[in-house]
Design brief:
It contains twelve helices and ten strands. By secondary structure, the chain is an alpha/beta fold. It has a single domain, classed as TIM Barrel. The strands form two sheets. It has an eight-stranded parallel beta barrel with strand order 1-4-5-6-7-8-9-10, surrounded by five helices. Strand 9, helix 10 and strand 10 form a beta-alpha-beta unit. The longest helix has 19 residues. The termini are far apart. The model has no long low-confidence stretch (mean pLDDT 96).
Length: 263
């Protein structure tokens, strides 16, 4: 059993526990559930922003503890102030050290779109995401069938949420493209063994139809890499550990953006 298999198995248990503890009707009564999600496309393509989707992540299965002291409100606001187009917030507890609180806190401190970064396998999680203040949800092709992607993506769009579909290979891309998806992200990290290779993005970019926003995810640590990815056709760039592994993620993104403007 791979780490991904373990994560999904645990996620199924979590969803059932959450459903019993907090019924859908309670989630739908939350204040954030009534708000209209922000447009991912609008912020990602805004000329005054960077295209960076800056991530708040405390730990990962491959790296262990990344940052155990960062305050979610402070870090995410610093990301937004530095020009991030969107925020990515991990809500998985067991494997990434995230929480629902992190998402709520990030939403309350910011006025740019927030992605709920988690392993979405059930419509309950989509309702939960909107109730927590998310604007974007992630669907991972590696753990979902085409039918499941269609069901979850169409349900999310019905809630007004933006949908980011994540793929890692040509096979995943070809079987997973869906009309309800807003953006397709190429994950440069193989979720089976957590190895990374930026070449994955360059190999797949031309195979993504132009109707979709194109996002490169993971393994981005140099401003020059973003320049090359832009030239290849990508609109957005999800950066996680590069900022969070520092003592001051807010300063790290400021330095990165300054370098990005100079290349």
């Amino acid at each position: 059993m791979t780490i991904l298999d373990k994560i999904v198995a645990r996620k199924r248990e979590e969803v059932e526990q959450a459903r019993q503890k907090v019924p859908v009707e309670v989630l739908e009564a939350e204040a954030y559930f009534q708000r209209d999600p922000l447009s991912f496309r609008e912020f990602l393509l805004a000329p005054e922003r960077t295209g960076i989707i800056a991530e708040f992540k405390r730990r990962s299965p491959s790296k262990g503890l990344i940052n155990g002291t960062a305050v979610v409100e402070e870090v995410t606001k610093a990301y937004a102030d530095a020009g991030a187009s969107a925020l990515s917030v991990l809500t998985d507890i067991d494997f990434f050290g995230g929480s629902a609180y992190d998402l709520v806190a990030a939403r309350g401190a910011n006025t740019i779109p927030v992605l709920r970064k988690d392993f979405m396998i059930d419509t309950y999680q989509l309702i939960e995401a909107k109730a927590l203040g998310a604007d974007i949800i992630l669907l991972i092709a590696a753990i979902l069938s085409p039918k499941e992607i269609d069901t979850l993506a169409s349900f999310a769009k019905g809630l007004g949420l933006n949908v980011l579909l994540e793929v890692h290979s040509q096979e995943e891309l070809q079987r997973s493209i869906n009309k309800h998806v807003d953006a397709i992200g190429v994950n440069n990290r193989n979720l089976a063994d957590f190895t990374v290779n930026i070449q994955t993005s360059f190999d797949l970019v031309d195979q993504i139809p132009s109707d979709f926003l194109k996002i490169s995810e993971s393994a981005i640590s140099e401003a020059s890499t973003i320049k090359s990815l832009k030239e290849a056709g990508f609109n957005g760039f999800l950066i996680g550990e590069n900022f969070m592994k520092t003592d001051d993620p807010g300063q790290a993104i400021q330095d990165f953006v300054r370098e990005l403007k100079s290349v």
